[in-house]
Task: inverse folding
């Protein structure tokens, strides 16, 4: 349940945790000017940060930290402002609760089966090919919905289970949130050489009956499995 209590604070345990949180919030705000961030405490003592991306896909990463209430929704820009001037370990007020702005439940924390590992370079290549196609087929309002819902990757489990279909929305969200970086931890841009990404850097695909979870080194995206999908090659 999203908290509505009077006490509100958020805390990043270290300078690196604060920097990670700021990077996540900044990306979320860049993708959606009305973005909200859902903060949820985890049993392992970490703080999960969640956002709805502009691709109808959830994005998340975690830091060492905490919040009160333990489950709270904040305005992204307000959270970014207070974190930018906060000292590590300091509790800061994230502002008003925006519980009504969050639609839907979060995916469960467990119940996922490892399906396959995909080279991070391949995921970036798919994102670039999709972006090129979107520029030619899209409009002023952005890429066509049909293009975003096309399957660009099928990950197959070794145990013979049904392949998991990953759509372009998820690939765009994973790269737009900066979750794939080069071997030195630097941002991968549209013009970055793919060789800067380690050739053995994986993107891990896991699945549950309701969700596909795609994990990169710096964060994860969650795609619902109940979509009408069209397979395409990019």
Result:
């Amino acid at each position: 349940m999203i908290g509505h209590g009077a006490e509100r604070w958020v805390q990043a345990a270290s300078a690196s945790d604060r920097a990670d949180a700021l990077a996540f919030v900044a990306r979320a705000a860049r993708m959606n000017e009305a973005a909200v961030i859902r903060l949820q405490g985890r049993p392992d003592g970490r703080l999960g940060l969640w956002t709805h991306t502009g691709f109808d896909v959830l994005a998340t990463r975690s830091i060492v930290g905490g919040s009160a209430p333990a489950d709270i929704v904040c305005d992204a820009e307000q959270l970014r402002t207070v974190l930018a001037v906060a000292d590590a370990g300091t509790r800061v007020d994230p502002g008003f609760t925006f519980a009504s702005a969050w639609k839907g439940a979060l995916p469960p924390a467990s119940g996922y089966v490892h399906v396959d590992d995909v080279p991070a370079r391949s995921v970036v290549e798919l994102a670039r090919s999709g972006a090129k196609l979107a520029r030619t087929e899209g409009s002023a309002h952005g890429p066509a919905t049909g293009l975003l819902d096309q399957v660009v990757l099928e990950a197959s489990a070794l145990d013979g289970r049904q392949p998991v279909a990953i759509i372009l929305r998820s690939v765009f969200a994973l790269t737009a949130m900066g979750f794939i970086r080069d071997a030195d931890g630097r941002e991968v841009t549209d013009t970055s050489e793919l060789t800067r990404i380690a050739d053995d850097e994986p993107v891990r695909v896991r699945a549950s009956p309701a969700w596909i979870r795609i994990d990169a080194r710096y964060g994860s995206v969650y795609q619902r499995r109940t979509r009408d999908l069209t397979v395409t090659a990019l």
